[in-house]
Specification:
single chain, mainly alpha, 5 helices
Length: 124
């Protein structure tokens, strides 16, 4: 057997043996898809709202110095988008599968600044 074919067989064997335990159940996959889809949707909507707020400042529709994160209309719309995302996750993701996917990773129940790997925690 040529060397290149041996390497291919070895690489394939390594990949197949290392994916053991990575398979998700149908419910977990549906849950993961709901989490990912809702996250993308929330990020997209939130970014669009913040951009619209900043555009409003630039066009003079909002006062200079307006904080788009706390501006009332933008905040209300972002909160509504978060509720919609949470509803989408809840519909596609029962509690047990959601917990098994560990959506918070190492950051579950921790402040973002104390999360492992966050820029503020690296120096501490």
């Amino acid at each position: 057997m040529p060397t290149s074919r041996r390497l291919l067989v070895a690489a394939l064997a390594l990949v197949l043996s290392s994916t053991e335990g990575w398979t998700l159940t149908r419910t977990e996959r549906r849950c993961q898809d709901a989490l990912a889809g809702a996250g993308r949707q929330l990020l997209s909507r939130s970014t669009a709202l913040l951009t619209a707020c900043r555009r409003g400042i630039a066009r003079g529709k909002l006062p200079p110095g307006t904080d788009c994160l706390t501006e009332a209309t933008t905040s209300a719309k972002r909160a509504a988008a978060a509720v919609k995302a949470a509803r989408r996750i809840h519909q596609g993701c029962p509690t047990a599968p959601a917990a098994s996917l560990r959506p918070g990773g190492d950051c579950k129940a921790a402040a973002a600044s104390r999360c492992r790997g966050s820029p503020t925690s690296r120096g501490s």
